[in-house]
Backbone:
């Protein structure tokens, strides 16, 4: 924590460098909130699987933007530690459960937990991560009671919205819904991803940092826009990225019949709509058919449409943020985040 505390006085100017510099430090902080069991087998079947999963924790962008938001409003980033860690544990829970629902095989280049530990233990471990979210904040001795209540309220709302978005994502696939519009997708992705990957970490950071209501609102709206752009880029990477680099099954969204922004755009604009529906409905893993589906979307202009939409989102978000948040190294990092989200390769 001290390393991050010193670093935030003069953080790197780019978001990517910020992540690279402090991901490991924040990872250790996040993992410090994972307890040990009162019986050795609890560690074997519960706490150790979560620790192993969390140690392969990726870029840690959610806790890091929580700290950056706190610093951007002039706050003490130590006050953001529990909330930042809580959101990262929520992320772990969401991914563990999401991989089960999607019958996924890889996560961050490693076999999914439900394949290595079994379905029951994976579900239970995800439940553990969820249970740790509010507890971390409520036990934080640095926060006032009023801060705890407000932060936990944010986390409860974040959890519900994420689950609502997941319900749409899973339900549309289960019921083979092909009447989904781009507006429907944007509602789903905003709920499923943008709140917990952008809006809430930034808003919570500003809340514990003592930001004004205008600053909290500005950071929340910035997080919604950039978090949505993050999800759009994630969907693009799934069908265009290098599977080894991205760390996911190539075109798994197509195999799972996901209604991404590119898919719903192509369903509306492509002359090969019926063929795309046929591939999406087949649950195929055949490379030729997956490539064909991508080609249909590309020819319909759907990939360009998604990239342009994400770019417009981030451009407008950056312009609004600078109005309410004063210039500082932390704000520079957050502005850089928008470009990183739409240009990242994994």
Residues:
């Amino acid at each position: 924590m001290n390393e991050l505390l010193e670093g935030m006085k003069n953080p790197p100017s780019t978001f990517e460098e910020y992540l690279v510099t402090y991901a490991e430090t924040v990872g250790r902080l996040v993992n410090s909130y994972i307890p040990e069991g009162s019986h050795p087998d609890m560690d074997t079947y519960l706490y150790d699987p979560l620790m192993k999963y969390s140690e392969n924790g990726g870029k840690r962008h959610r806790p890091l933007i929580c700290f950056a938001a706190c610093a951007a409003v002039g706050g003490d980033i130590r006050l953001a530690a529990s909330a930042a860690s809580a959101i990262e544990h929520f992320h772990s829970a969401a991914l563990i459960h999401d991989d089960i629902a999607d019958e996924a095989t890889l996560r961050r280049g490693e076999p999914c937990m439900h394949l290595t530990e079994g379905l029951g233990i994976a579900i239970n471990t995800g439940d553990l991560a969820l249970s740790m979210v509010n507890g971390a904040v409520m036990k934080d001795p640095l926060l006032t009671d009023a801060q705890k209540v407000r932060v936990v309220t944010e986390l409860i709302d974040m959890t519900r919205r994420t689950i609502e978005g997941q319900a749409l994502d899973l339900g549309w696939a289960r019921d083979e819904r092909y009447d989904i519009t781009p507006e429907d997708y944007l509602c789903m992705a905003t709920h499923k991803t943008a709140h917990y990957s952008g809006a809430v970490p930034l808003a919570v950071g500003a809340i514990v940092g003592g930001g004004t209501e205008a600053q909290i609102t500005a950071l929340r709206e910035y997080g919604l826009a950039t978090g949505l752009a993050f999800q759009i880029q994630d969907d693009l990477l799934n069908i265009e990225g290098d599977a080894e680099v991205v760390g996911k099954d190539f075109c798994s969204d197509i195999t799972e019949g996901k209604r991404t922004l590119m898919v719903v755009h192509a369903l509306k604009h492509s002359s090969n709509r019926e063929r795309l529906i046929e591939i999406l409905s087949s649950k195929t893993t055949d490379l030729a058919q997956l490539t064909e589906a991508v080609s249909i979307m590309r020819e319909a202009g759907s990939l360009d449409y998604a990239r342009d939409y994400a770019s417009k989102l981030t451009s407008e978000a950056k312009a609004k943020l600078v109005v309410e948040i004063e210039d500082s190294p932390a704000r520079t990092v957050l502005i850089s985040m928008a470009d990183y989200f739409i240009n990242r390769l994994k």
In short: The beta strands are 106-107, 110-111. Residues 145-174 form the longest helix (30 residues). DSSP finds 17 helices and two strands in the chain.
